[in-house]
Specification:
Helices cover about 35% and strands about 15% of the residues. It has nine helices and nine strands. The chain has a seven-stranded parallel beta sheet. Strands 7-8 form a two-stranded antiparallel sheet. The longest helix is centred in the middle third of the chain and has 19 residues. The protein binds zinc ion. Zinc ion binds next to loops.
Length: about 270
């Protein structure tokens, strides 16, 4: 039976590619962000997103995987909120890795050493804060996932990757000259299960697509038609079993700041 895997990415405004981490799209460097102390602060929208997300969590009992950017823990407020959230939902929340600073790796030249260091630091940080809720599951920052990244993920014990948005519209995110098939093959070669994002008619329906007209119409329909979310007790087994037909949906914590904090994922 097919089911849905609910996943939310924890990006603050300073993490998105138009702000940082991308060679041509970004306005700010990581060094500037650290020098000005922005990495220790949360935006007002992010704080509203935290409250909205909690309200949404209380409205159902489905399990949710949060893909967390490790440098969020530079903020004491975030660390406290995260601890409280895990204590309140110990069985429902699993924590995956969404990078150290949210660098758009495949938009840059291949950098195995840099990615190895960043992934190692991020993994240690997430393990420390998430404890038993941590899972070796990866989502590439900004969906920028190149084939060369698979070996680094495997070396550091990652078992699941959920970075591929298998649409021609965003194929450039597989890195210069690469295709999504090549990313998928490299993951398979390294023994990592790929959980690509749901698409409809080969078009994106997750993340920003939920809000970009006319993709938003397609996206909302796809979400309403998605199978029932899986149960908390079965998520680990379902994810690593390649035979399992799992629909992967994803959105951002920041989305919960929309509509004055009342926005909720458009599920059935
Ligand atoms: Zn992200």
């Amino acid at each position: 039976m097919s089911s849905t895997w609910l996943t939310v990415d924890l990006d603050d405004k300073r993490h998105v590619p138009r702000y940082s981490g991308h060679p041509t799209r970004s306005r700010h460097s990581q060094a500037d962000i650290e020098k000005t102390g922005q990495d220790r602060k949360l935006s007002d929208q992010f704080r509203q997103g935290m409250r909205g997300f909690e309200r949404w969590l209380r409205s159902h009992s489905h399990p949710v995987t949060m893909f967390v950017i490790a440098d969020l823990f530079n903020s004491e407020d975030f660390s406290k909120w995260f601890q409280h959230l895990l204590e309140a939902n110990p069985k429902r929340l699993t924590i995956g890795c969404h990078g150290l600073h949210h660098k758009s790796w495949s938009a840059w030249p291949e950098d195995r050493v840099g990615f190895t260091h960043a992934l190692n630091e991020a993994t240690l940080c997430l393990k420390k804060h998430a404890g038993v809720n941590f899972r070796p599951w990866f989502r590439a920052p900004g969906g920028y996932m190149a084939p060369w990244m698979s070996s680094v993920l495997a070396e550091q014990g990652y078992t699941v990757d959920s970075s591929i948005n298998p649409s021609w519209l965003v194929r450039r995110k597989a890195g210069k000259g690469n295709s999504w098939n090549e990313v998928s093959d490299s993951l398979q070669r390294h023994g990592i299960v790929s959980r690509p994002w749901k698409t409809k008619m080969s078009l994106p329906v997750n993340g920003p697509a939920l809000f970009l007209f006319p993709l938003s119409l397609l996206a909302r329909r796809a979400w309403r038609q998605a199978p029932t979310p899986c149960d908390a007790g079965e998520i680990d087994e379902l994810l690593i079993n390649v035979q399992e037909d799992l629909t992967t949906l994803y959105w951002h914590l920041l989305d919960h700041a929309r509509n004055k904090g009342k926005w909720m994922p458009p599920l059935r």
